[in-house]
Amino acid sequence: MWNGRPGLRPAASVPTDPADDLGVPPVRPTTRQVLALTCLGALLVGAAGPVPGSRPAREVVGLPGLDRPVRVTVDTWGVSHIRAENSDDLFFAQGYTAARDRLFQIDTWRRDGLGELSEVLGSAYVAQDTASRLFLYRGDMQKEWESYPAGTREIATEFAAGINAYIDWLADNPAAMPQEFQKLGYRPARWKPEDLVRIRTHALGDNLRNELARAQITCADGIGGTKAFRKLEPARTPEVPAGLAPCDLPADVLATYDLATAGVTFPTGTTTPPSPAPAPAADPFAGAAGGSNAWALAPGRTASGRPVLAADPHRASSGAPANRYLVHLSAPGINVIGAGEPWNPGVSFGHNGHIAFGLTNMPVDQNDLYVYELHPDDPTRYRYRDGWESFRTVQEDVAVKGAAPARASLGFTRHGPVVKVDEAKKRAYAVRSVWTEPGTSPYLGSLAFQRAKNFSEFTRGLAAWKTPGSHLVYADARGDIGWVPVGMVPRRTGAGYDGLLPVPGDGRYEWDGFHSQDEMPRTLNPEQGYFATANEYNFPPGHPVTPAYEWHPRFRKERLDEVLSATRNATVQDSLNLQTDQKSLFATRLVPYLRTLASDDPDTRKALDVLRGFDGVIAEGSSGAALFEIWSMAVLRPAWLKKVAPRSAGNPWYFAVPEAGLMLESFADPDRWFGPGGAAVRDRLLLDTLPAAFRILAGARGPDPAAWRWGDLQTHTFRHPLGGTFGPVPRGGSYQTVQYSAYNLLNLQQMVGPVFRMAVDVGDWDASRAVNAPGQSGDPTSPHYGDLHRLWAGNGTFPLVYTPSAVERNARKHLVLLPAGRQPT
C-alpha cells in the first residue's frame, strides 16, 4: 500500500558512460565532466557548428538493392539528410540509415513485438513471447496494406530492404557489429515488410488499466468512490454494467497484457526477463501516462509575420537511445524533415517546406476488457447470447535458444485475445482492441501527409489515420494554422456502455463499427490567432463523438492559453522558452488556501512560511517547489484520498496519473465533497499534512529550507538497456507544468517528459530548432550517442537545418550509397 513517503536521496551530476558497461571505448570525454546546466552553456553548445577549416569525412558504400546513388549528409548534431533520385531509393536509404544508427533498438523492438526473444535470449522469455504473439495483427494482409496511405506497402518493402542491406553489410564487416549483439551473442534478424505493420503493442491504448482500477475502487468504495479517481469529461456518472461483479475480477487479470506491452528488460546487464506474471499493481508509476504539448501561432501573433509551430511529445524518457529519431528525406516530390519512431518510414513531426505538423496524444478509448462465463462442463466454450461459442485456438512453436521449441497456445474469443482463464471460477477474460483491425499500426498514417502542400491535402491524407489517437496541429507557409483530431473511435452499444469499466462478453455490450474522420471536429485559422493542445478535453460542447472520458488535467493547457493569448511579436525562441515553462497553475491555486491558516506547531509554521512565499514555479533551484511537490503529491493527496475514498485510498493506480485537479475542486466546494462543515475539514487536512512534508525534507536535506532544491530531489537518468547511464541530472517541472515531468513518487526519478522537442519557423525553415536526447545514435561508440545530452539537460536546442546550403555548412560526414558494382565518381 502507498504510504505517501517518497524516497529522497542526493542528486549526482556526473553522467557515467554506457560504453563502459559494454566494454567499448568511452563515447566522448565530455560525458565524464560535471554538467554545467545553464541556459548560456546550453546555447553555446547548440550554436556550435563545424570546426572552421575542417572538412567533412567521406565514406562510400556499395549496396545491392539500390537503383541510383544516394547521398547522406550527417550534420553536426547527428541528423542524416538523405537525398535520393527516386522514392524507392529514398526509403531504402532511410531504413539503412535507421539501422546504422539504431540497429540494436529496432531489432529489439521487432523481436519483442513478434514474440521472438526466446530464440536469442533463452527459455526465460517464452512467456513474454507468448503474450506478444497474442496481440499481433492476424487478419487479412491485403486489407491491412489497403488500409494505409497509397504506396505504404512499397515504402515498407524498401525500408525493410534497407535495414537488411545494413545487416548484410555487417556480415562483411563484422568488426562494426554493434557491441550489444557481441555481448549477448546473437546476430540481428532480417526484416520482412509485414514486420513493420503487424506489431501493435507499442501503441498508446490508454484506459484499459483504468477500467480494472475503477472496478477495484468500485468494489471497495462503491461506484461513487470512483469520483476521486479521474475527472470525466464530458461530465459522466459511471454505471456498473449489468452482469459485472467488480469484486470478482482477479488482480492479475491484465498480467499477460502488461507482459506483452512492457518492452524488454535486461537488468544488470544480464538476460533475465521481468517476471512472466507480474502483478499489475506492483509498479503503477511505470505506467505513468505520456502526453504532449503542441501549438501553432498565426502570422498576426509573430514578429516575422510567419506562423510558428511547436511540439514536444512526452513519452517514457529514460531509455538510451530515446524513441524518436530525426531524419531529412529528399527525393523528387518529397522534401520532409522531422522526427518519427526509428522503426517507421517517414516522420510524424516536422515540415516539408510547405507545411509544418506536430501532434499530441488524444486518449481515444480503443481497448476494453471483456469478462466471459465459461460453460459449466466445457472450459473451451463461453456464453454468447443464448448459446455457447468455442474459443479459437492457435498453436505456435516458439524457438528457444539452447532448447527445443516451446509450444504456445493462443486463445481468442470473437472479441479478441484471451489474457486469463480461471477454470475454478468459470471465467475467462479477453482484451478487445482496435489493434485487431486492419490499418492500426501506430503512426504509419503519417505517410499520407509527407507531401501535402495545404490544409485540404493534409486533412484528406488523415482520413485513414487510426492509431494512436492524436491531435494534429498544422501550419503552412501561406499563413494558415489548424487542428485535426484523428483516431479510431468505437461506437459502443449496450445500456450504459461507456468503456469506463469491464463488461460481460455475452453480447450485451458490443462495438458497432467506428466513427468516421468526417464526424470529428477540426479548426482552421481560429479567431484567437493560435491553437494549442495539451491532451485536455477540447471537443466542442455537445459534440456527438466522445473519443474518451479520461483526459489530462487542464493545468498545462490553461498555462499555454495564459501565455499565448497575451503574446504579440512572438519568435521561435519564445516557443522554445514556453516548452520549458515551469509555472504550475495547480500550485498558484492551491497555495492561497494556506493564507489564513495558523498553527502552534513549529514545523507547520515553517512550512507555511515557505509556501506563502512560493511563486508557483517548479524550478530546479526552488526550495518552495521542493516542499510544495512533496507536500501536495506525496502527503496531502494520499491523505485527501483517505477522506474521500477511505477503503480504496491505497489502490496504487491512483498514483499512476495523479488527478490533482479533483482535489482542488473538492477544496473549492468542500461541503459537497466532505459534508456539512467541509471548509473546516479541508483546512484541518491542509494543516495536518504540512508538518509531515516539512520533516521529510528536513530529514533528507537538512533543517534549513534555504538549502532545499527541487532539482536535488527530482532527477533524470538515461539508461542503456544493457547498463550504463547518462545522469542523473536535476530536472524541474511537474505533472502540472508545461515542461511536463511525470516522476515516480517512490524515488522522484523522472519517468516521462520531453526528450525530443522542436519549434518550426514556417517559411524560414533553417531558423527552426530541435533537440533529441541523449543523441541521434544508439551506438555507444558513435560520437552522436550522447553528444546532445548536455544540450538537452540545459534546455537547449540546435538548428534543424533544411536548405542544401545550410546542410552543407553544418556537414560532419558525407555518406555515399551506391548500387552494388558501381564505382564512385
Automatic annotation (TrEMBL):
The keyword Iron-sulfur does not apply. Residues 1-26 are annotated as: Disordered. Pfam families: Penicil_amidase. The keyword Calcium applies. One of its GO terms (molecular function) is metal ion binding. InterPro entries: Ntn_hydrolases_N, Pen/GL7ACA/AHL_acylase, Penicillin_amidase_A-knob, Penicillin_amidase_dom1, Penicillin_amidase_N_B-knob, S45. The active site is at residue 292. It comes from the Bacteria. Ca(2+) binds at residues 211, 365, 368. Gene3D superfamilies: 1.10.1400.10, 2.30.120.10, Glutamine Phosphoribosylpyrophosphate, subunit 1, domain 1, Penicillin Amidohydrolase, domain 1. Keywords: Calcium, Hydrolase, Metal-binding, Signal, Zymogen. Its cofactor is Ca(2+). Binds 1 Ca(2+) ion per dimer. GO terms for biological process: antibiotic biosynthetic process. Belongs to the peptidase S45 family. This is Penicillin acylase family protein. It comes from Streptomyces tsukubensis (strain DSM 42081 / NBRC 108919 / NRRL 18488 / 9993).
